[in-house]
Design a protein that fits this description.
This is GMP-PDE, delta subunit. With 165 residues, the chain is mainly beta. Helix content is 2%, strand content 54%. It has a single domain, classed as Coagulation Factor XIII, Chain A, domain 1 (Distorted Sandwich). A hairpin with a 5-residue loop joins strand 3 and strand 4.
Length: 165
Amino acid sequence: MRDRVNGEEYFDFVRQNGNVWLLSHKSSGSLSFQNLNWMNLRDGETGKILWQSTDDLSQPGTEHQARVPKKILKCRIVSREINFSSAEQMEKFWLEQKVYLKNEVIEPSNALGWQFEFGFVIPNSTNTWQSVIEAAPEAHMLPAGLLSGNVLMTRRQNDLLRHGE
């Protein structure tokens, strides 16, 4: 499965001990931002932080693991907040995310991926980016047992129009 998404970052969710999800993250290739200073996932309705990390996830070829509470699957809305630093000016910084289940794209329903646009990035700046993701209706949710160990999330980001190019 990893060969299929070569060159992108991936998150591999695995159920562990029946009460947490293990998040493996691997970055391959260089990212547009220099440092990912911190990241968190919140319940989008209450604002409560469910997971946070100060690991620099932007280092190519490095695998990171984080324990994410299973209760995140019960959230109707999840907020992802990323704090990053960039030495370069970027005109239109964006991120694309796809979710695979057993090698098939399941989210979004199209093969293009979710598109998140940050926009202009000032050179030598530190920025915080919050994205909100709504869950599917409960009737369309897949059971945790099916997802366990079979989900892969890919993420890639880029600056479409670098200043001066």
